[in-house]
Design a protein that fits this description.
Elements (H helix, E strand, L loop, with lengths): L1 E2 L2 E2 L5 E3 L8 H9 L5 E2 L3 E2 H5 L3 H5 L10 E6 L3 H12 L5 E6 L4 H4 L11 H14 L4 E6 L9 H10 L4 E5 L13 H8 L8 E4 L5 H11 L3 E4 L9 H11 L8 H19 L1 H12 L10 H7 L5 H15 L17
Parallel strand pairs: 3-11, 4-6, 5-6, 6-7, 7-8, 8-9, 9-10, 10-11
Antiparallel strand pairs: 1-2
Length: 340
């Protein structure tokens, strides 16, 4: 599989862009566990062209996470074209357009999955962005706006015609948000359309090695994107890759290994963002590494309230000492609802 000139191994695995989750330190961790490609949090086109600090900060990428895509969203063509040029200046490998976010404040004003209600505008915006940058442009979207308007097959062909290099399809409509099950049959229908020549990456409900294997074998997708199941579980890429290569299921990491993973993640977050911000933004991750441990409430509270790195590491050492012998084989964190 190739996206532009980027060549991937067989059955590549992608980290989905997730707001407030896929920051540089989390991308670094997922890459270390075998993600073949990672994406930034989505970035507002308005924020970029106005030089908004939060939006500009999301352009921060590094060579260790390559190949990496910067994802942008917006509802107006000119700001999106300009933001694509700005994003290209950060030297990503790919510019990804978000036509899939179902959140009301995004979709309601015509951005994200709201663009699916105006396919001509979606296509024209994509064409203009493809023409404006010199690196591959990809798109992430959904099956359609609702059950009566599942128009992903038409959309896929029209976006291919204006030059996108790959298409990621989340197997739900905007109306579904994150409820119900992802419909992979329609993803497979797009992939197996003989007129489709670009790579099709499937996304939705991939939370185990077996589901990833089924996506490749049953639906024929070129790649699989994993989103919510990575939260508190960046090692899922290692699990899936091992299963795809060997057919064997790896055990879940022990508590002691999770402690070391959490320490590495914390250190990388602080290295990139400084101690105050790095610690604050790690809070959403730290306790989720230890889902399922008994009598963990007071310790979790410490992990999400302490501000000193040494003190947090001391609590993590305590976790390893007290719970190191616990069986966490079934302790898989629940999904969250930030995938875009």
């Amino acid at each position: 599989m190739k996206i532009g000139e980027i060549e991937f191994r067989d059955k590549p695995l992608f980290l989905a862009p997730m707001e407030d989750v896929t920051d540089p330190s989390f991308r670094y961790m997922c890459k270390g566990f075998g993600a073949d490609m990672v994406y930034t949090e989505f970035i507002s086109s308005d924020g970029l062209i106005r030089d908004g600090a939060k939006s500009v900060a999301k352009l921060n990428i590094c060579d260790a996470e390559r190949p990496v895509g910067i994802q942008i969203y917006g509802h107006l063509i000119e700001p999106m074209v300009e933001s694509a040029r700005i994003a290209e200046g950060a030297r990503p490998d790919v510019i990804d357009i978000n036509f899939g976010c179902p959140v009301k404040k995004i979709a309601g004003r015509g951005a994200g999955s709201g663009m699916m209600r105006d396919v001509p505008l979606m296509v024209e915006m994509t064409r203009r962005i493809v023409e404006a940058v010199s690196i591959p442009v990809t798109v992430k979207t959904r099956l359609g706006w609702d059950d009566e308007h599942k128009n992903i097959e038409e959309i896929a062909l029209r976006l291919q015609d204006v030059g996108i290099a790959a298409l990621t399809i989340h197997g739900r409509t905007r109306a579904q948000m994150y409820t119900g099950e992802a419909d992979w049959t329609l993803i497979g229908r797009v992939k197996n359309n003989p007129a489709i020549k670009i790579p099709i990456i499937g996304n939705g409900d991939i939370d185990s090695p077996q589901k990833a294997a089924e996506a490749f074998e049953r639906y024929g997708v070129d790649g699989v994107m994993i989103g919510r199941a990575t939260y508190g579980r960046p090692w899922i890429f290692r699990e899936v890759r091992h299963y795809l290569d060997t057919g064997e299921v790896l055990p879940q990491p022990s508590v002691i290994e999770r402690v070391e993973i959490a320490k590495r993640h914390l250190a990388k977050s602080v290295e990139i963002k400084g101690e105050r911000v790095g610690v604050f933004e790690m809070r959403r991750h730290l306790s989720n590494y230890f889902k399922g441990l008994p009598d963990f409430k007071s310790t979790r509270l410490k992990l999400v309230t302490l501000t000193d790195v040494a003190e947090i590491n001391a609590v993590l050492d305590y976790v390893a000492e007290k719970w190191g012998g616990c069986d966490v084989s079934g302790a898989v964190p629940p999904p969250l609802s930030h995938e875009i």
